[in-house]
Amino acid sequence: MVRQFMALLCVLCAPLVANAAAASAPVAIELHQWLPLSAIAHAPTVALTLDACGGEFDRGVVQFLIERRIPATVFATQRWLVRNPDGLHTLLEHRDLFEIEDHGANHVPALIGIGRKVYGLAGERDVAHLRSEIETGAEAVASATGVRPHWYRGAAALYDEQSLHAIAALGYRVAGFSLNADAGATLSRHEVSARVRAARDGDVILAHVNKPRTQAGAGLIDGLTALCERGYRFVRLGDTTLAPSLVAQQK
Q1: Of 78, 72, 75, 67, whose CA–CA distance to 98 is shortest?
Q2: Domain for residue 15, yes or no?
Q3: Domain region containing 173
Q4: How many domains in the chain?
Q5: Alpha helices in 58-182 (DSSP H)
Q6: Rounded to the nearest 5 degrees, what angle is found at the Cα of 88, between the Cα atoms of 135 and 234?
Q7: How many whole angstroms separate alpha carbon 233 and alpha carbon 89?
Q8: Alpha-carbon distance 14 to 126, whole Å?
Q9: Which of 79, 134, 129 is nearest to 104 (CA)?
Q10: Are 121 and 155 in contact (CB under 8 A)?
Q11: Nearest residue to 27 (alpha-carbon basis) of 248, 225, 223, 208
Q12: First and final CA of the chain: distance in angstroms?
């Protein structure tokens, strides 16, 4: 009888325990950032940032940027740099256009805590593992380019308060965004193009340069072509100052 009572008690309390755990879990934070408005430049200005998480090199996108003289900030993981020497060489041949910043070693989200996941990616066990992810990635960028990175963007671009403090303590600025162009290179050509065409003065665009087999690259090219035709100006993060960020919290 006692065993049956205890079993029933566990069943009844399980939802309460789960809800309490969810309520106490750290909030995932997405940083939204903009450039200062470009009244002085007399042209709408946006910053193009490209994540190179893993996978391959989207040569079509980069060649388009070179031909159109569109600068971009590339956030590369150590994994991507090792796997794509030809892509790295192309970027380094055009240092006037591309700056390479830190996307970590192995593309691990900057969410701290055992069991935390986002988009199927497991977060960091603790702050020590986060520091290793950031610094190993930074060393890979410095070794590849000869320049130590100043910016860091975690996988999935999500953080929590603990990780943001840890990143700042290491001396890196967190790169947010205001326009998600391709949702991890999962959207169609039309969807990506439409999002990029909707860019406004001051937007920081987040797209990807590591998935050439998807439609995202073609959509990005279409959208950027439209912005060029409308007289938009492009800058790298290192060439400007981001305006104060709006923190969007996702529970």
Answers
A1: 72
A2: no
A3: 27-250
A4: 1
A5: 59-68, 78-83, 85-93, 127-145, 161-169
A6: 90
A7: 26
A8: 27
A9: 134
A10: yes
A11: 248
A12: 41
Amino acid at 106: N
The predicted pLDDT at position 244 comes to: 63
In this prediction, residue 119 carries a pLDDT of 86
pLDDT band of 12, cuts 50, 70, 90 = very low
List the beta bridge partners of residue 49. 73, 206
- Which CATH number covers residue 187? 3.20.20.370
Residue 137 lies in a domain: yes
Residue with tokens 């380094």: 92
Place of tokens 């702050």: 127
**Cβ neighbours for 69, distance < 8 A, ≥ 6 positions apart:** 97
Residue 115 backbone phi and psi in degrees, to 5 = 90, -5
CA distance 201 to 251: 29
Rounded CA separation 200/13 (Å): 50
> How far is 248 from 251, CA to CA, in rounded Å?
10
Predicted confidence (pLDDT) per residue in 184-200, tens digit: 999 999 999 999 999 99
| Residue 43, in any domain of the structure | yes
C-alpha pair distances (Å), 105 with each of 8, 45, 101, 138, 181: 47, 31, 12, 8, 24
Residue 2 lies in a domain: no
Closest listed residue to residue 149, CA positions, set 236, 28, 59: 236
**pTM for the predicted model, two decimal places:** 0.88
Tokens read off for 183: 């949702």
Q: How far is CA 12 from the centre of its chain?
A: 41
**Cα dihedral 95/97/102/105 (nearest 10):** -70
